[in-house]
Amino acid sequence: MPDAQSRRRVLIAAYLLPKTIEFQSDEAHEADESAIERTYSPPTQHGTSHTEQLAHQLTSSLMEAIDKEQARSRVLAGRPGRVSTAMSSSPRQALSAPRERVNMAELMADAAAGTKPSYLQRSSSSITSYEVDMEQRHSDNAPQAVKSSLSDHGRRASTQGELGTSQATPPRSLPPPVSSASSTSPLPIPISIISDLEAKSHQGTATAPTPKENPYGLGSSTPVPPVRSSAVSSSTTPRLMEHPHLAPGWTDGIEAIHTSSTPNAAPPPRGPTPASTEGAVRDEERRTSTVWRFNIARPALRSRSKRFSSSQQRIPFEFLPNPGANHGLFNAVNSAGTQVASRSVYVGTLGIEMDWLSTHMRAEIDAKAMDQHKCVPVWLKDDEYVHCYHHYCKQILWPAFHYTQPSAQALETEHDAFHAYVKVNQSFADRIVAEYREGDVIWIHDYHLLLVPAMVRAVLPRAPIGLFVHIAFPSSEIFRCLSRREELLRGMLGADLIGFQTHNFFQHFRQTVSRILQLPTTSRGIVLQRSFVTVAPFPIGIDVRVLNQRRQHPDVREWVAKLKERFAGMRVIVGRDKLDWIKGVREKLLAFELFLDQHPEWVGRVVLVQVALATVQENHEVGDVSDIVSRINRKHSSLTYQPVVFLHVNEITFSQYLALLTMADAFVATSLREGMNLTSHEYVIAQEERKRPLILSEFTGAYSALRACIGINPFHAQQVAQAIERALTMDEDEMAQRWTDLHRTVVSQTAEHWVLSVLSQLERAHLSQPSPNTMFTPRLEIGQMQAEWRVAGTRLVLLSLEHTLVWEDAKQLHEHGFEPPAELVGVLRRLTADPRNYVYVLSRKSTTDLDQLARAVPALGIIAENGCYAQHCTRAPDGACEWMSLVDGIDMKWREPVRNILDYFTERTPGAWIEERSTTITWYFCEGTTNQQDVAWARRQASEVQSLITDSLGERFSLRMINENTHFVIMPKNVGFTPAVQYMLALDNMGSLPVRQGTPGKALFEFVLYIGHDEKLLSHLNHVDLPFAPRTCTTARPDTIAGSIASCQLEPGKQVLDALEEIVDVHLRDLKWGGPAMMDV
């Protein structure tokens, strides 16, 4: 058993693996360089002067500048021109781009020098005095290891052994402008807070020539990836590529590049250099449309398949950190230590183009990925990857999960996008099934893979499967707008456990399932026909231990000192967000502008440093935010003061980021909707010495736990401005008290605790499922239990009344009342005639309805109203019925508001009625209805009323609901048949259970027989410790018996009565022929 336990693994499925690959090929690189020259260089003849070549470059640059100015003038004049439809319909977006002007002298100088025109390099509105100052004061290019993220998605992974090998290196400056004439290897545009670290760490080293990029924005136009020298080349840092279109066939433009690369190909009619074309395309797209950055990190030309499709050709490659992966997840797994990390196997995509790779290459990558990094790549078609991730996930699911509707353009391609989404999820499921071994735990992550749980469950019905959704989950009113809502929900319900970041997201999911699928729900999860899906919140955290180690790095301390010197005499407010509208950067800037307008005394004394990370989708938010930054700085700047430092084009290192958090006077997060926001956790840890306040949006998942922060509504600019003023003027004692409370939460809600909590709960949820180990449940045979029955001194017989002893028509019962059948009364009288039998009937009926049965069978014990009242087997034949309440002390004030809600829905649901008892209320909604439309409407109404009662009254009054096919029962939470039976067994163990009339005494129960359909009671009785094993018999529907944990089964009604008659016959035969035989003792 220990060996089997040690071999268990955790298969972690995420859309992107923690590692990606980069190829190396010197020979291919040289060939590609020559191909690029043939494609883009103008035709030259022998003897052509250098001046003519420069003239050609100048002409190309001038023509491009003219086109750019004409396009801008058309936008500003309101003429559509070449502006896209989406752009022309949004005046605000059209006017949001920076208004650069071309300096002809600079243009000519740039062209003569052979460099990219300055206006194509960086927007002047994006360059701040802070960046210029840092670039001028610190220009060293000392190598530095790649830093890792501790929290949010999209940050880079850590280099192995970084903490142990770190050296005290001086802080480095931000990289110099790419237009520097001395630069031989221009830096790529960074995409995350540390995405450019690898490139920066090797500045000044010998690198291969930088591959040029094609004018379609798809990255390198070479047919194979660029060469990597012994040091990492800055030009090959893995990053998300850009492409302006999302229509099917997005790679068609590459074919033209390939065909035009032949030696005899005619040159383009206009000859802009590749670099200037890239800049112009990026600038034009930023102004006129949306630029999509593909997770397929490096493009593959179709010529690649011709050159390297042979299995004999091997392309060298190496593994690198995947820049787009969820490193918050991977770092959390690693923080759990060898207990989890050593057993984890990651399943996902590499984030590269895959169509061109041969079967031989894929097999080699598979083997090395598993051997070196415990990764299992999922191989997808490139078009399916794009349609799934960039269309369905980012344009349909992402907006909906963040409380906005998908755009009309996204909905046009939704059908094809969802088709690709299904195929991608099926590929993941197939890969997981192929990798699965008996005993493994499957843990699926995020909204990219919502269909995978059900797909895996169909093949592996007994596997433990968990799903965790890292982003927010919307309310049912938003989710129901998705056209594929049912498929998504049923896909998720294939898991044993579904986890969310907060309790609100869990509630939204439960309500959505109840209202859309009309499935019964409880406070713990979703009730399915043969299983139960546990749903719970698991707030993720950070690795506090590793973060504290990073804070001690010399770089961090030196940057803290330099930043304090740079901002001496001023208060510093820090913000760090992806430049996505959902992060509320625009709202934050507007609130800061309002604060400065209303509090002019703070002008010159406070600075907002906003770190804006690039996103997968870059839209008009960039220009809009830049405009606001420029307006604030124009309004309040002076010769020595700039109120907003906006870091977007040039990002900062992780050491600089920690230094900012350490020396900040406040941190502001104004997300409009966010799953968690772990940056606020990092800020709390970094503020261990200063203990400065945290301003946090109430729409972030972290707000539910970090209640000692200054909570804000980001849509309320005045409130945010007041929060900034409060943070800057708060006294030291209050700041210390708030920080202490925040710190207590952060250090207890760690990444390690999150991983272990989810996995342990997943195992418990899986073990609590109805056992599928037996395909058949045998019929109860009395002959097989005769020996135990005869020997047992005292027997407890528990019999369910509804759907077991009798099968009633609820509507007829409602109209005429309950009348005990004569056959039932006769069987119960003969069964209770044996003084060793303690027979209890379990019913949901009221005590008034059951009085008639109690008088007809005096020695019968009864548990009424779903366990709220009990009557023991002690009443004399002519005695009165005495009921004992099991719900004394429970607040019954819930009955009136519940009745009001039920009355409202009863009036609007044909055929519905209310059955009210002293402690329970039952609502029948489609009993006796045969019209399918009426049934569908009634079930929809039932889902609505259950959700309404649960949300408004459930937690307040501790209520629970028992769901049946045509009705549900509302009752106090800790009441039921199982607690009532537990109470009786406890009295029996203490010798306090009342003894039957006419018997001298009573021994402890030695045998228990239960016939009914309450699965909780079945489970409890199966584990009762008695001299003889309890016999549990289910009367559930035949199609659900396979999931029951009962030892045998009977059909309700006649089969049950016949079995009881057979038990009576055993007693009668013993009376006739003597006591039990010796073999029975």
Automatic annotation (TrEMBL):
Gene Ontology MF term list = alpha,alpha-trehalose-phosphate synthase (UDP-forming) activity; trehalose-phosphatase activity
Query: Per the record, where are the segments of Polar residues compositional bias?
Result: 41-54, 156-167
Q: Where is this region: Disordered?
A: 27-54, 66-99, 131-189, 201-286
State a GO cellular component annotated for this protein: cytosol
Asked if the record carries the keyword tRNA-binding, the reply is no
In Gene Ontology terms, what is a biological process of this protein?
trehalose biosynthetic process
The protein in question is named Alpha,alpha-trehalose-phosphate synthase [UDP-forming] 106 kDa subunit
Q: Which organism is it from?
A: Malassezia restricta (strain ATCC 96810 / NBRC 103918 / CBS 7877)
